[in-house]
Write a structure and sequence with these properties.
- The chain is of the alpha/beta class and about 210 residues long.
- It is built from seven helices and seven strands; from the N terminus they run αααβαβαββαβαββ.
- A seven-stranded mixed sheet has the order 3-2-1-4-5-7-6, sandwiched between helices.
- It is globular and about 45 Å long.
């Protein structure tokens, strides 16, 4: 939690309580259903929570923004972002039932009221959203293809509606065929921990300016 408060010092008491509850909940659920690397439970706040919250450093979603988390797994980045942005709505989806079940139970346990969670493949979703977020669930071109039809055209945030995904390592091969406007941000610009040295945000605009 010290790392969270270090970079997000203006959290409300409720937000602090929700973040504090995550560690024990993920440890307990991970003993039953392996949704994150077991060694990562000791580094939950850095490698999962803070990593997810880098999106909140990149963009401050305006109230009523509607966001889909594609391939949320155990709830990342959707759950930490839903805590940070209580006036936005997050739809967390995953095609693996046991993972979305864990994310659902954790969301309920911390009393998140701005999330819906669905056991569904993103390819089958008919709704529209302002942004899609994701954490390295597939390569960028495939993620862009899935996200494109989910994004509405009415922009209200600082960045045009589109895809914001968390990536690691060298992205040259993934981005070489992207025809949309995109931007890459190094997470080391936000966080000083060594874990973030190779981590990046890839933002792709999926609407016309």
């Amino acid at each position: 939690m010290k790392q969270i408060l270090k970079y997000f010092p203006n959290l409300s008491e409720q937000q602090i309580k929700q973040f504090e509850m995550l560690k024990q909940l993920y440890v307990e659920w991970n003993d039953k259903i392996n949704v994150i690397s077991r060694k990562d439970t000791e580094n939950l706040y850095e490698r999962h929570v803070l990593h997810s919250l880098s999106i909140a450093k990149f963009i401050e979603f305006k109230p009523t923004t509607n966001i889909i988390d594609i391939g949320t797994g155990g709830g990342f980045p959707g759950i930490p972002l839903a805590i940070i942005f209580p006036q936005c709505h997050f739809h967390l989806v995953d095609s693996i039932g046991k993972k979305i079940m864990v994310a659902t139970e954790i969301s309920r346990a911390i009393n998140l009221t701005n999330t819906t969670l669905s056991h569904i493949n993103a390819k089958d979703i008919k709704q529209k959203y302002d942004f899609a977020v994701s954490r390295a669930v597939m390569n960028a071109p495939d993620l862009i293809k899935i996200s494109r039809r989910l994004i509405n055209r009415n922009n209200k945030n600082h960045f045009p509606n589109g895809l914001i995904c968390l990536k690691g390592g060298n992205l040259e091969e993934e981005i070489k065929n992207i025809r949309d406007t995109y931007y890459i941000k190094d997470l080391s610009d936000y966080f000083e921990e060594p874990f973030f040295e190779t981590k990046k945000i890839l933002y792709v605009s999926l609407t016309k300016p």
